[in-house]
Specification:
The structure holds 2 protein chains of 2 kinds. Chain A is built from no helices and 12 strands. By secondary structure, chain A is an all-beta fold. In chain A, strands 2, 5, 6, 10, 11 and 12 form a 6-stranded mixed beta sheet that branches. In chain A, strands 3-9-8-7 form a 4-stranded antiparallel beta sheet, with no helix packed on it. In chain A, strands 1-4 form a two-stranded antiparallel sheet. Chain A is globular and about 45 Å long. Chain A starts with a strand and ends with a strand. Chain B starts with a strand and ends with a strand. Classes of the chains: A mainly beta, B mainly beta.
Chain lengths: 116, 111
């Protein structure tokens, strides 16, 4: 069975600090997909990134970067020079390829608070 | 192109009442989903559909029914609402093995 763990329930940083959000997953599949979503205070879920299990290249998008390590079953998310607008709940999620419904399993989320 | 829309945005029910939540998508996606999000928790899958006319149970299906009569719409029904169904409900859609895109959510309170 698939499982996603986000051990950090809340993180508080001061603006301009770097912060890393941890995500550890469990799956028996060799083909799977990992995702990060952002949920700002307004409540909607915003897609950030999708990664397949065969692509271990790290990804950078502006101040955001993602580190995928199959050896440790982790897909961590780093925000560089954090800003107040980054304050949100961030969810990591997993989908297995043999999953008929393409279903997502979510972690419990990490609430990030960026203080000015 | 509105993406995924949900109706209504808010609703308050009394225990035992029924209601239907409507999800619509204009991205021609095959798959649609209903999730619930409870305070401090991630999203949990209620039901999903892999195509028009098909539905299947997710992780927490009890107390809910769904229908997918048209490809673009996915309805979630509560036949007899209970306080335990107070939650925020999210609809999502995707194509196979692709990213799920979410609607804005419906906040439901059952008194």
């Amino acid at each position: 069975a698939q499982k996603v763990t986000q051990a950090q329930t809340e993180i508080s940083v001061v603006e301009k600090e770097d912060v890393t959000l941890d995500c550890v997953y469990e799956t028996r599949d060799t083909t799977y997909y990992l995702f990060w979503y952002k949920q700002p205070p307004s409540g909607e879920l915003v897609f950030l990134i999708r990664r397949n299990s065969f692509d271990e290249q790290n990804e950078i998008s502006g101040r955001y970067s993602w580190n995928f390590q199959k050896s440790t079953s982790s897909f961590n998310f780093t925000i560089t020079a954090s800003q107040v607008v980054d304050s949100a709940v961030y969810f990591c999620a997993l989908s297995e390829d043999n999953n008929a419904g393409n279903m997502l399993t979510f972690g419990g989320g990490t609430r990030l608070m960026v203080k000015p | 192109n509105a993406g995924v829309t949900q109706t209504p945005k808010f609703r308050v029910l009394k225990t035992g009442q029924s209601m239907t939540l409507l999800c619509a998508q204009d991205m021609n996606h095959e798959y649609m989903y209903w999730y619930r999000q409870d305070p401090g928790m991630g999203l949990r899958l209620i039901h999903y559909s892999v195509g028009e006319g098909t539905t299947a149970k997710g992780e927490v299906p009890d107390g809910y029914n769904v229908s997918r009569l048209k490809k673009q719409n996915f309805l979630l029904g509560l036949e007899s609402a209970a306080p335990s169904q107070t939650s925020v409900y999210f609809c999502a859609s995707s194509n196979f093995a692709d990213t799920q895109y979410f609607g804005p959510g419906t906040r439901l309170t059952v008194l």
